[in-house]
Write a structure and sequence with these properties.
The protein is an alpha/beta fold and 207 residues long. Helices cover 43% and strands 13% of the residues. The chain folds into two domains: 26 residues, no CATH class; 150 residues, Alpha-Beta Complex (inorganic pyrophosphatase (n-terminal core)), CATH 3.90.1640.
């Protein structure tokens, strides 16, 4: 049985004061300065987000956009491979809709929690290959630790682009491109990629 840990012990009695409750939530999230609290309560318009400030490597984003645009132009099969939690499902929907509107040959894929487990799996990659003849897999809300799985996909001739927000380990997968930051949720990272796809013109397709 899961035992919940109460982070704030300075509240000695129950309160219905909204300000007190907000202060507790802010403290639990480690938000102390006026700037941090203001950004949390009144976040900036997503269109104003700066990839460099978020820690996303612009060359990786550009590489991902170029590969996806090529897949759209050549009608390759694209799989948006999301996580099964709320963040992953929302991010998958965001990225799938953007690609669908760009006339991509794209399908969403959410793994079975019991049969396939969390994240990118060899079983899921096999399903993407056999069911959809996938040429390109884009992960949403996972993938930053899937070293063996991405190597396996490459052996099957499938390129993989990672979009993730989880903390990285010392070793990272050898993906075609990695769009990663811990400063957004998984859906936020997927949204940034979708925005880049919509806003940037298609590069010329090589002969």
């Amino acid at each position: 049985m899961k035992k919940w840990q109460i982070l704030s012990h300075n509240i000695k009695h129950k309160t219905s004061n909204p300000n007190a409750i907000v202060n507790i939530l802010l403290a639990n999230r480690g938000l102390k300065t006026k700037k941090e609290i203001e950004e949390f309560l009144n976040p900036p318009n997503p269109s104003s987000l700066n990839t460099s400030r978020l820690g996303i490597k612009t060359e990786q984003l550009g590489k991902a956009v170029k590969r996806i645009k090529k897949a759209i132009d050549t009608h390759e099969s694209i799989i948006v491979y999301g996580d099964y939690d709320a963040d992953g499902v929302c991010g998958t929907a965001i990225l799938w809709e953007a690609l669908h509107n760009l006339k991509a040959n794209v399908m969403p894929y959410i793994p079975h929690r019991v049969d396939e487990g969390y994240g990118l799996s060899k079983k899921g990659i096999d399903a993407a290959k056999s069911q959809y003849q996938a040429n390109l897999i884009i992960t949403v809300d996972h993938g930053i630790g899937a070293i063996e799985q991405i190597d396996y996909a490459k052996k099957l001739g499938i390129d993989v682009i990672i979009t993730d927000h989880h903390v990285t380990s010392k070793n990272v997968p050898n993906a075609l491109a990695t769009i990663h930051t811990i400063n957004l949720c998984g859906a936020g990272v997927a949204w940034l990629l979708a925005s880049a796809l919509i806003s940037k013109p298609s590069p010329p397709t090589p002969n």
